[in-house]
Write a structure and sequence with these properties.
With 646 residues, the chain is mostly helical. It has 27 helices and nine strands. α1 crosses α4, α10 crosses α21 and α21 crosses α23.
Length: 646
C-alpha cells in the first residue's frame, strides 16, 4: 500500500458502481431521466448528485442555475476551480460532491423508495461489478479540504503517487468528496480508470462466442432473413400463432423504445462521438445472440390444445438442461429467469415507460406539467393498453405490426432529413466518430471508457442475450426453428445499427452533445430533451413529433412486455392465472403515472438486465444443438430442398 498521507489502492465501491450504472441504464429500457427500455438502471438519484458536478475537461462557462448561493455552494465552486487548475488536462474528468446529510424519508412512498434504493445498490453491486478496474484512493482530512493552498499541494502529490501506482491519468476520473462547511459528512478522494461491468462483459463475451460458434450467421444469413420476413417462405399451415413479420415487430416493439431517443444522446454526451462505433459493434455481435436464443425458443416451445403457443427461456432452460441430464440446474435457472421477467415487466417494461413518456410529453403539453393532472395520462394509457393486451398475442402482434414500422419510419425519416440538411457536416461527423472510437489521446483508460459506454447503450437497447425476445419468436409459424432465429437476428440490426445510429448521427452532426446551451440536458440526464433540441435545430416543429414518438415507443414497449411477463407468470402459476397477471399489469400502468419514486421504478429495470445471467449461461450450454440445426438448414437451402413458397 502506497501512501500520500496514506493514499491506497482499494476495491471499488457502490458509488462507482452506481455511476457506471447510470451510463448503462439509459432505456432498457430508459433508465436515464428520460430514457428505454428499451428497459435500465438504479441509483439515478445518487448519481445525479455527483453527475451534475462532473466536469469533462472543458472551458464552457457555468450556467446561470449553477451559480453558488449557499456557503457550501461557494466552497464547492472554489474547490472546482482549484481542481480545474491543478488536474484539468491531466485526467479525463473530475467532480466534487458535498457529502451533506440527507433527511429521513417521510411518507410511505418516500420510505419505500429509500428501501428500494438500498436494494438496488446491492443488485447493482453484482450486475455492475467492475472487472479490471484500476482505482487509487487517498486519505484526506477535513482541514485540508478547507484550506485551498494545502489542498493544491495535496492534489499535486496525489496525482504523482497515482501515476506511480500505475493509473493512466488521461483516461481516469477523479472524484473528491468534501464535508459541509458545518463539518458534517466524510472526506474522500479517488482516481479511477474504468473497468468492465460484469453484466456488460457477460453479454459481450456471450455474443462473441455465439458469433464464432455460429460461423458469423449474421453475415451469412442476413439476406435470407429479409426474404423470410417478407413472407417468401411463409406456410399458413405451419404450427404457431403469428407470422414471421408479426413476431419480429412484436419483439421489436419491446426494444425500440425511449432508450433509442434518450439513452443514445446521453451516451454520446458522456462518451463522445466514438461511442457510436462500439454501439454498432455491439449491435452486430448481438445479432448472433438473438439468433441462438430465439432458435431455442422455437425448439422447446409447447403447443396448447387451444392452439396457443408457450415458449421462451423458461422452457428451453428447464427442458434443455433436462435433455443434458441436469434437470435441477435447468429448473433453477428457469424459475430465476421467470421471476426476474415478471418483475421487469411490471417495472422497466411498464411503470417506468409510463412515467418517463409522461415526463417527455409534459415538455410540449403544458396540461401534464401539473402534478394533479398526471393521472389523466395514466388512465388513458391503462384503457388503451388494456384494450390490446386482453386480446392476447394475436392482437398485440396486429397492433405492433402497424405501430412499429410507422414509428420507426417516422423517426428515421426525420433523422435523414436532418442529416441531408447538414450534408456538408457529414464527413467531419464521421471523422469525429471514428477518431473518437479509438481515443488515442486518452490512452488505454479512455479507449476502454468510450468502448464500454457504446456497448452499454447497445446492450440495453436491443436486449440481445436477455432472453425476452425468445418468448415472442417462439409463437411464430415455421417448420424450422432456426428459420425464426434467422428472422430474429434482424432485431439488433434495426434497433441498434439503424435507429440508435440515426440518433447518434443527428447528435454529432448538429453538435448538440457539446453545445453549452444544451449542457443542462446532460447534467439532468434528460436525453430526450437533448435529442429534441438537436432535431429542433433543423426542424423547428420536431419536438411535437418527438412527443408523439415517445408515447408510441412507450406504448409498444408496454404491450410486448405484458406478453413476456404473462407467459412467465402462467408458466409458474398455470393457465388460469393469466387474467390476474393482466389486471396487475394494468394497475402498474396507472401507478406509473402518479408515482415519482425513482428507485422503485428502476428496480424493474435491474431485474430485466438480471435476466441475462441465467439466460446466457443456459444458451451457452445449449448452443451446440442450434449449431447442428443451422448446418442442416443451410445444407437444405443450398441443395434446393427448401424453396420459397409460390
Amino acid at each position: 500500500m502506497r501512501t500520500l498521507k496514506s493514499p491506497l489502492r482499494g476495491a471499488s465501491r457502490l458509488g462507482t458502481l452506481a455511476a457506471g450504472l447510470t451510463l448503462f441504464a439509459a432505456p432498457l429500457f430508459a433508465s436515464v431521466q428520460d430514457g428505454d427500455a428499451d428497459p435500465g438502471a438504479a441509483g439515478n438519484a445518487e448519481v445525479a448528485a455527483t453527475a451534475e458536478e462532473a466536469v469533462p475537461n472543458s472551458d464552457a462557462a457555468p450556467t446561470e442555475e449553477a451559480k453558488p448561493k449557499t456557503p457550501d455552494d461557494l466552497h464547492k465552486a472554489a474547490v472546482m476551480a482549484l481542481l480545474k487548475e491543478v488536474v484539468g488536462g491531466k485526467v479525463d474528468s473530475f467532480s466534487v460532491k458535498v457529502d451533506a446529510p440527507k433527511p429521513d424519508p417521510v411518507g410511505l412512498e418516500a420510505k419505500a423508495d429509500h428501501f428500494m434504493g438500498k436494494v438496488n445498490e446491492v443488485i447493482a453491486a453484482g450486475l455492475f461489478f467492475p472487472i479490471m478496474e484500476s482505482k487509487f484512493e487517498g486519505e484526506l482530512d477535513d482541514a485540508t479540504t478547507g484550506d485551498l493552498p494545502a489542498l493544491r499541494t495535496y492534489l499535486t502529490q496525489f496525482l504523482v503517487d497515482a501515476e506511480a501506482d500505475g493509473i493512466d491519468l488521461e483516461g481516469a476520473a477523479l472524484t473528491l468528496q468534501i464535508p459541509t462547511r458545518g463539518g458534517k459528512g466524510e472526506t474522500k478522494i479517488d482516481v479511477t480508470t474504468p473497468g468492465w461491468p460484469f453484466a456488460v462483459l457477460w453479454l459481450i463475451l456471450g455474443a462473441i462466442f455465439f458469433t464464432v460458434r455460429m460461423g458469423f450467421v449474421q453475415l451469412r444469413m442476413f439476406g435470407h432473413a429479409i426474404q423470410v420476413t417478407r413472407g417468401k417462405y411463409d406456410n399458413p399451415h405451419d404450427e404457431g400463432e403469428v407470422s414471421h413479420f408479426q413476431a419480429l415487430t412484436a419483439a421489436l416493439s419491446a426494444t425500440v423504445g425511449l432508450g433509442n431517443i434518450a439513452g443514445v444522446a446521453i451516451a454520446i454526451s458522456v462518451g463522445g462521438p466514438g461511442a457510436t462505433v462500439w454501439m454498432i459493434a455491439a449491435g452486430f455481435l448481438g445479432m448472433a445472440s438473438k439468433f441462438v436464443e430465439c432458435s431455442l425458443g422455437q425448439m422447446y416451445r409447447q403447443q396448447r390444445p387451444d392452439g396457443s403457443v408457450m415458449g421462451g427461456a423458461m422452457y428451453y432452460l428447464s427442458n434443455g438442461f433436462k435433455d443434458l441430464g441436469k434437470p435441477g440446474i435447468g429448473k433453477f435457472l428457469a424459475v430465476f429467469f421467470a421471476i426476474l421477467c415478471v418483475g421487469g415487466s411490471f417495472g422497466g417494461g411498464n411503470s417506468f415507460q409510463v412515467n418517463q413518456s409522461l415526463n417527455a410529453l409534459a415538455e410540449t403539453v403544458p396540461f401534464f406539467e401539473n402534478p394533479d393532472n398526471r393521472w389523466v395520462y395514466g388512465a388513458i394509457m391503462t384503457v388503451v393498453v388494456g384494450a390490446v393486451i386482453l386480446g392476447g398475442l394475436k392482437r398485440i402482434a396486429q397492433v405492433a405490426e402497424k405501430v412499429v414500422p410507422t414509428m420507426c419510419g417516422l423517426y428515421v425519416a426525420a433523422a435523414l432529413f436532418v442529416i441531408l440538411s447538414n450534408a456538408s457536416a457529414v464527413p467531419a461527423a464521421f471523422g469525429e466518430i471514428f477518431s473518437g472510437a479509438m481515443t488515442p489521446e486518452a490512452g488505454y483508460g479512455g479507449l476502454i471508457g468510450v468502448l464500454i459506454i457504446g456497448f452499454k447503450r447497445a446492450a440495453f437497447s436491443n436486449e440481445a442475450g436477455v432472453g425476452s425476445a425468445a418468448i415472442a419468436h417462439s409463437a411464430a409459424k415455421t417448420e424450422f426453428p432456426v428459420r425464426e432465429g434467422i428472422v430474429a437476428l434482424l432485431e439488433p440490426f434495426i434497433d441498434t445499427i439503424v435507429v440508435c445510429t440515426m440518433t447518434a448521427l443527428v447528435i454529432v452532426i448538429t453538435g448538440a452533445y457539446s453545445n453549452p446551451d444544451f449542457a443542462h440536458f446532460v447534467s439532468d440526464n434528460n436525453g430526450a430533451g437533448l435529442t429534441s433540441a438537436a432535431f429542433g435545430q433543423s426542424i423547428s416543429w420536431f419536438p411535437y413529433v418527438l412527443a408523439v414518438a415517445v408515447v408510441l415507443f412507450a406504448f409498444s414497449t408496454m404491450i410486448s412486455w405484458s406478453y413476456y411477463g404473462e407467459r412467465c407468470w402462467v408458466w409458474m402459476f398455470g393457465d388460469k392465472s393469466s387474467l390476474s397477471y393482466k389486471v396487475l399489469f394494468l394497475i402498474f400502468v396507472f401507478i406509473g403515472s402518479i408515482v415519482s419514486a425513482t428507485n422503485i421504478l428502476d428496480f424493474g429495470d435491474l431485474m430485466i438486465l438480471g435476466m441475462a445471467v441465467p439466460n446466457v449461461l443456459g444458451v451457452l450450454f445449449l448452443s451446440g444443438k442450434v449449431r447442428r440445426a443451422l448446418s442442416d438448414y443451410t445444407g437444405k437451402l443450398k441443395s434446393g430442398e427448401i424453396k420459397p413458397v409460390d
